[in-house]
Design goal:
The chain contains 8 helices and 9 strands. The protein is α/β, with parallel strands linked by helices and 277 residues long. The chain has one domain: TIM Barrel. α4 links the parallel β4 and β5.
Length: 277
């Protein structure tokens, strides 16, 4: 399908719900999207969202939700767990396209996490990170400041994406993106690539200013920005998604983002991030 509208950020948070990718896809098409990334159930360390579910059950649930070719599975992993590398191997064998990480009790540069990220990168799979303030009722946002992700300089070959435009640290996000671009020109060994996930994040009142700064920074972001919603597989929010698509397209038109870049933001860049294009 040409010019697919893809959502890079959809969550499974209901372990007892029977997977119904046909219903999900029908709801997404009502909203204007034709597929996207589905993120698996959270690891045990992130238990405030739902009850802990064993690894194999989480993987099986994700695979069942993504049996349609319109969906791309990302497994939510805790990279500090002792068997994280084995989990990565098992997930890739099952068809997982990449990994989701929320640094809620560790920094991105934690030695245990970096070992896992290196293993993921060696397998040529990407990582979608939460970034910005973390609404989990705990002291955890300090782990998700954009500058903390400079530690990923030391993960050869990694493709990673930072979600939510790092709200409220959107300016810091833009600066970190620029630093990764600059590092690629300074260091012959630098092949780490950063992407930006537009998933809210940003309340509507801040949205235009944040997008203006991202696209007006002078950094070439045209191939590294993806649209997402943070919707759930259970009751995908059609009204919410339509409103954000309309808002973002209106803003991007006002700031003169090209038609080609719009196509990339709403689908093409996600496929490149996943290694599918």
């Amino acid at each position: 399908m040409n010019h697919q509208m893809l959502d890079c950020h959809i969550h499974i948070l209901t372990p007892d719900q029977a997977p119904d990718h046909k219903r999900l896809l029908a709801d997404m098409r009502k909203a204007g999207a034709s597929g996207g990334v589905i993120i698996g159930l959270p690891p045990a360390s992130f238990r405030f969202l739902c009850r802990p579910v064993p690894f194999e059950q989480r993987l099986r649930n994700l695979v069942n939700w993504t049996r349609s070719p319109d969906f791309f599975p990302l497994f939510w992993i805790d990279p500090t767990e002792s068997d994280a590398a084995a989990q990565v191997n098992r997930c890739i064998a099952a068809g997982v396209k990449g990994f989701k990480v929320i640094c809620d009790h560790f920094y991105p540069g934690d030695e245990r996490a970096v070992r896992t990220f290196k293993h993921i990168a060696a397998k040529k799979k990407p990582v979608l990170f939460h970034s910005g303030i973390l609404w989990d009722g705990r002291v955890s946002s300090k782990y998700n400041r954009p500058a903390e992700f400079e530690a990923l300089f030391e993960v050869p070959g990694l493709r990673f994406m930072m979600a939510h435009m790092s709200w409220p640290w959107c300016d810091e996000l833009v600066a970190v993106f620029g630093k990764f671009l600059n590092a690629r020109s300074l260091r012959k060994d630098m092949d780490v690539e950063m992407f930006v996930d537009l998933t809210p994040g940003t309340p509507p009142i801040y949205r235009e200013e944040a997008l203006k700064r991202l696209f007006g920074s002078g950094y070439d972001v045209s191939r590294n920005v993806c649209f997402g919603t943070d919707c759930m597989v259970k009751g995908y929010d059609v009204k919410w998604t339509r409103s954000w698509i309309k808002r973002d397209k209106s803003i991007l038109k006002r700031i003169a983002v090209s038609a080609g870049t719009l196509t990339n933001i709403f689908g093409g860049n996600l496929k490149r991030f996943l290694g599918l294009a």
